[in-house]
Structures are given as structure tokens and as C-alpha cells.
User: What shape does this take?
Amino acid sequence: MHWLGSTHERHDLACGDCHNPMARLSSTGLATRPTTSETCLTCHPQQRTEFRKRSHMPLHEGKIACSDCHNPHGSYTQALLDGDSVNHVCTSCHAEKRGPFLWEHAPVVESCLNCHRPHGSNHRALLVSSPPYLCQQCHSQLLGFGHPNDLLTAGNLIGGARPDERILNRGCVNCHVQIHGSNHPSGIRFHR
Amino acid sequence: MARTILRAFASTARALALASAGLGAAGVHAEPPIANAFERSGLFPAGVRDWRGMSHLREIPRRTPTGFLHGVPRHPPRPEPIGSGWSQTGSLEVGAFFDGGDERETRFGRYAERDDGVFVSRLTALLEQPERGIHGEVAGVGLGRDDGSARAAFEWAGRLRARAFFDRVPVAYAHDARTLFEGVGTARLSLAAGLTPGANSDAQLAAALAGTGERRLSVQRDRGGIALDLRVTERVKAFARFEQEERQGARPFGGGLVYELGPGVPARVVETVEPIDASTRRVRAGLQYAGSSWWANLDYRGSFFRNRIDTLTWDNPFALPATSPFATPDLVERGRFALAPDNREHAVRAEGSAPLPWRGRLTAALSWTSSQQDQDLIPPTINSGSIDTQLFPGGAPLPATIDLDDWSRPASRRRDSADARVDTWLAHVALQLSPWRRLRLGARVRYFDRNNRTRYRAFNPLTGQIGYIAEDAAPGATIPFESRVFIPGQLTEDWRFRATPLDLQRLEGEVSADLRLGRRSRLAVVYRRDEVDRDEREREETDEDRLRIRLTSRSASWATLRASYEFGRRRGDSFETDVLRRFFVSSLPGFNSIFGPVIPPRGLAQLRRPSLADLDEHRFEVRVTLLAREDMDLSVASRYRDQDYGSRYGLTAERASGATVDWSWHLSPRHQAYASLGWERARRDVAGINDAGPVSDDPNAGGAVFPLDRRWSVDAKETTWSVGAGMVAHPHERLELRSDYHFDTTNGRTAIGFASEAALASGLSAAQAGRALPDLRLRDHVVETEARWLVSESVTLRLYHRYQRSSVRDWAQRRLEPQVDGALFLGHQDGDFEVSFYGVGVELRF
Assistant: This one.
């Protein structure tokens, strides 16, 4: 229904770019490659690399397909997402992140892509970069004896002069563990 | 010949009908692929390729319209007649795996089961009655394994299609976790025998850790469902789906108590383990109308998440420090998390499409989604005892004691349950007109509204006080002024006590013109405007304009070109850094700042959060697919993106560029080879100022709170190379050999800049801090080789080998031990590994 004017249609793709009913090239979907995802990655090599990164969605392991999140035949969004918004798509699988929570975290509400890469990342948990610097792109609070704007360096790593939990392991999320939102009456700062 | 062509068209038409029946399943929660890491390429029965070609009319490989060569298909299964018009075929492969090396490493088995064993690696069974268009099949891979999946389908062509499926995904988090807690995977983490909650020295913890073993943490996701598509009339199709997902296991979690209080008084943090025992039920049903030119869909989706473990309680391993005579840290015996609440989501979507004059079409959609949860709330803390909130001896504060018993009883909850709800609306209208054969005009309007109906403030009806108990009283009991209970007149910091209902309205508009240039080229110009209105953010409105020019050309018979350029510009109204003041206690009567008349700024005024900041963006993308030879294709793609946020603090700029080259050679129908090379580089620049303390209410850079000599910057660059090569060969018509190699490598460099040592955390010297973090280095080699030997018409032997060598150097995990300074971690590091994984399978066809 949304094919006309969709991203694929505007790129002048034809049915035959993805489907070939004349031969058995795939086990389902009459695709031109053995799987849906291989068909997509033919024209999207960047995503093929991303799915091989250190943290990634299990596409190359065969446990997810591009069509789990995208509708190649058109949708409301430029990225052909099969959902009203990025968050609707993500929380359809990650329902525990959906909340709604008593205490919300603004970038989470706005778009999961503020902090995560959808296909794969060189950092843990598909993060766009590592904490604390990911968090510090937004947080400069002072709030009395707050700490978000301290510069953490190699001296704060293990073996450095002053190891600091804010840069080790999960970084800020070591303490602010409910970073997607908290349902605890005392969870204002996402500690509980 | 004519009959052959007609048969080909008939086959095509039926196949397309089947495919279109499947399209309804595409999208979120489409049925999962029947695949796993061992069997990624779908469910082809083993056997030789059918190199008679891609069609009944020609034998040489054909291409997609873009120019990519098709692969060589396999022989389709040939059902054998079994009487009464029925025919059947099937296959069963029994496989065995063996591995050697560092097979326990988490990353090797993150989404796949790699254990040794014998199992049914693949199963297919097909039963059909072609005359009546009835078709049934059962298929599965890895049956009995943690990464197995299976599907059963029944189809009566043109009438109904029913499926049932099952899919399993293991998600490994750590193979080497070491923890002092007993009860991992449950709602209660108790310290091991010999340790006392809230009263252990670091030496005692170290001694206890020495006796712990390594533990594997993983979550198993199992998903099963049924689906039915029913053709009600010639033009109306109904569909319904139900699926249930179960997740069970445990994964690393956090746990903060107090922050660092100075040299020798480290932060107290413990990496706990979150128990996972949850289910999600999803329901989807709808109607689809497909007339000759009018189309309509009505769709309902429901999602119901249930967490069987709604809290996690854990013993405090540490003896917390006492910083004043008023401190009572020994009362902090436990911590408790509220885990993800049960929730439900309902979504209804109606959409339709109608023809218009000028070869036009109008498509409209309306979607409503409501997310709700009403989980019972837990009290503000689990601990009991009293903490004294007096600030400093002699500071003349009002005497006050917080009795945690008044904050740990159910009656201390603001309300019994969360009563949280968020509704969203989406309206979408798209218009396409073609007043001239070569020109198409388009327009779209999209309106999205998020309405958070949740209202909450931290308030204890038992005491009549505003406030909460941060981190189960650890900061408040350790440092008296860190109490988060508001007592009018009492000295306090400024802290938030009300939830911020984050609402958002977004209006997007787009106009476009697509112009055909000759028969084989197309030029598109798209202008898009995106207006966002946010509540309770420091910038209420942003307007983003984007102009995109796109060219697609197949003018040259030997190439397809796709190129685009996009310019984006975001601006908005002024920034108000103190927009949340009314959510903080400084807005309450009786607020008495511990900083005297100064209420310190809420943040650096010139910092711009990336989603709110001004933005100038340039984006180029070029992709050329070359038909290098009749038996060869070559694709070259390049992209560049430059985002400037127009800010000196926060995320200031991002740049990303990349290129890929893909080459495919069909030397003969029996021999194919491919190679690929990818490169990408990304850069992110972040800057900030380490505050000089609450000495002023000036929020500006260069002021007393944020002096420029405390400015810092972090520039992170990552370069990734990806190389791949492989081949498929059939040295004999009964033998197929496949081999693939991939090498991926990333180097990440993080440069640190600071104006002076005052910018540094923890009072480090410049020499101690250095000017860079250790490089992030990732390497991954994978070689996969597979041989399939068709021993006879009914037996195939498969041999498989995977070699993987991988290394990680990540500064965040480097030399991470279970005990670091004042913190307890699980000690897991993504480590290096080298593994060989062997598989052998025997397939029997029947």
C-alpha cells in the first residue's frame, strides 16, 4: 500500500531486484538470494559489515531477518520501519523497555537511536560510543555535589592512578542501572 | 515453445500469489527465519545445483534489474506420488558437532549453541495435492538445540494458509562471571556464608572472592506462535497471529550505593545479576481489502509483557564509610530494584488507498497506540533504622531524623500502583500525482503525538513529606546532607521530586518531484520539513528542513548508478536551561539551600543535547553497480555524512564516511566466487567543562561555575576494515564445496584534551591522565568451509568446519577483576579466543 513514493520505489527498484519467481533461489519469499537478509544485504553492504561488529543483532546467526524491523514494500517512515516510530519497532521485541515508567529518561523516550546503533556497534550493547562520554554528550549537571561533568581519563582505568567505576565496565550504568526508566518510587536518578 | 512459456507464466503467477500471501507477514514479528548459525541459508534440501539456468528460455545466468547476477538455483524438491493425487518428499539430516579451543568464550556462543552433540540438524517434509492446490510442510533446524527453530505450514492455495512456528535464541552474557551472591537467577541475592550484609571489609570480600568459581550468565529466548491467513472473499483477506515469547536466565546488572568521597574513600558499586523470567504474548489480527484500485487494511496489534520477577533484592556487601558523627551507614543492609513492570500495549491501525486522476493515488493511515502499566509499587526503600539529616555540627540546622521504617512500609507509597500510561497517535496522508508521463509529484503529511498521562511525585503519605530514599539510604546514611527528604527550612541540595511527563508532537511535511530523464534515468527532488514540539525540554520547538536530490540511472547498458545528496538544517527557539525548575525542590516554599543564597545552575548553559541542538548536515551517497562482464558484477558504494551541531559543548560534531567494493564472478554455472572490501571511519567530538563547584548561579561557560580553564574535549575516531572472500565450486556434479573467509578489524582512538588539570576527575595530574585512552582494537577472522557430497539420490553427506580467531582490546574492560578499588564487578571481559568447530551431517531424503 505504501510502495508508491517509498524509499525503494524512489530508488527505482523493481520487483525483480528482490524477487525471482522463475527459479528456486530461496526457500521462501521467492527472493533472489537464499534468505531475505541476504537479499537485502546485496544492496546494503554497510549493514552487512555492521552486523559483524562486536555487538550486533543476530542476523548472521540466522536468528533475525531484516524484515523483522523493516517493511521493504513501503511504510510511513523513510527507513521503511514497520512501526509508527523507532521506539515502537524496538520495544515490540524489547517489551521490558517499553514501560511506561514512573521516571522516564528523555532520550529513551525520544528515540532508542539516540544511544544505540540498530544493526551493530564496536561498543557493547550496540551503543553508539562508550560511557561515560556517551552520557556526557548530554549531561553537564552540577546539582551541588554532582559528578556528570568530570573528565575521566586513562588515569581512571585499571592500572591508572585512580581507577574510577564511572569509566570501567558499564560506565555510568554501573550505578544508573535502570537507564531506560525506573518504576521504583526512589528511582528518579535511575539507580533503582 | 509456446506451451513452455505459458507454463512458465502460470508458474510465475502462482508463485507470486504465494509470495504476496506471505507479504502480510513481513514486518515486525514476521515469523522467524528457520535458520541458525549452522544452517543460515534457509531450508534448501541438500543436493546439487540446477545449472540448467534461470529460466526455461536461456541457460546463462541472469541479473536483477540493478545488475546483480542471480545465483544458480538448486534442484527443487520433487515430490513422489503416493496415491489419490497426493505426493510427498522430505529429508532428515542428523548432525554431530565437535569443537576445540576456547569454545567457552562468551562471544563465540552469544547467539548460537556451540556445544558438542548429536542432533537433528535439519528436517523437511512436504505433502501436497497439486490438483487441489493443497500443500503442507514441516521444516526445522537444530531440533533440540538452544538455537533451533521449526515451522509447520498448511496451505490451500487461494483460500487459507496456516502456520505454526517455534524459534530459540540463546544470548550469552558471560562465561566467567564471579560473584559473592548466592541465588543468582532469583529475586534474592544473598551474600555467601561468612559474609555479613553491610559489614564486610575489602579484605574480607577479597578472601571470599578467592573461593568463588566462574559462572555462565545467559538468557534463553524461546518464541512460538501460530498464524492464519484466510481469504474471505476474492478481495478480502483476514489474518490472525498469536505468539508467545519466554525469556529465562540471568544477565549482568548494576548496583550503586555511594559515590567516591575522596582519596581512600572509594565509591561503592556492585555488579549484581538480574534474574530473567518473563513472557511476552503478542496478538495480531486484521482485514485486508484489495480491490482493483482501492485498498484498505485494518490491523490490531496487542503486546502483553509479564515479568514473573518484579524486584531484585541484594545484600550490601560493603561496610560503608561514616563521614560524620551523624552518619549511620551500618543500617544499609540491602538494596532493592524495581525490575521491568508488567505492561501491555494495544495498537490499532486503519489505512486506505484510493486512485486519483492523473495516475495518482491517495494513501491515508491513522494509528493509535496505548502503552499501559499498573504494577504494584514497592516502598521507597527496603532498609530500616534512622538516619540523621543534620548538615554539619554547629551548622544550626533544624534537627530532623528520618525513620526508614516510615519509608519501607507499603503505607509509605505515594499510591499503590504505577497507573502509568502513554498514548500515541499517528496520522499519515500521502498523495502521488503524475500530471505528465515523465513527471510525478508527491506530497506527504505525517503527524505524531505522544501523550504521557502518567503523573507522579515522590511523596510519602505516611509522613506527609515530599522526598524519596536514594539508593536505599546509602548516601543519606553515609553523608547526612545527601538525604532526599524535603523538610521545610532544613538545609538541602536542590533535587527533583516530580516525574517529568515527556510529551512530544511532531509534524512532518514533504513535497517531492520525480522526473524521468529518458527511459532509464530518474531524478528526484524531495523537500521535507520536520517540526517537533516537546514538553519539558530546554528547547521546546525545533524545525528541521531537509532537501534531497537523488539520481538513478541505467542509461549505460553496463551500469546502474544511484546517487543522492541531502542537506539538513535544524533550528529552533531559544534554550531555557532551567525549564525543569518546577520539578525540583527549589520551587517549594521552605527551600533552604545548603549553598546559602546561591542556587547552583542546573547545567552548562551552552551545552546542546544532540536531538535539540542546531544541526547542519551534509550527506552524500553514491552506488554504482557495474556489469563488468557477462559473468561478473562489481558494485562500488561510497557514503559521507557530516553533522555539525553548532555547539561548543556536548556532542559538537559527527562525521562518518565509508566505502565498499563487492565483486561477484560466475566463472561457470559450477564455479562462483566473490570478494568484498569495506572501509568506514567515524568520528565523534564531545566537549564539556568540569564545574568548579556551587560557587555561583552563573550557568555560562567562562563563569565562576564553569570556568574555561576546566574545559575538556574527547575526540573518538574509529576505523573499520572488512574483507571477505569466498567461492562455491562443483568439481563433480555430486559434490559441492563452499568456503568463505571474513576478516573484520577496528581501531578506535580516543584523544583527550583538557585546558588544565582542574578539568580532571579525582584530582589527577596531567601526566597521570595522559592525552589518550588506550586504543580500542577489535579483530575477527572467520573461515567457514562446507562440503556436500551427494552419495546417492537419497543420501547426502555434509562436512562443516568453522575456524574463528577473535581478539578484543577495550579500555573499559581491560584487566577488569571482580574487585577493583571499592567496586565489585563480575569480572567478565570480552576475551580473545580461537576455536575450531566441526560438524558432520548425514541427510536422508524420502
Observations:
- DSSP finds seven helices and two strands in chain A.
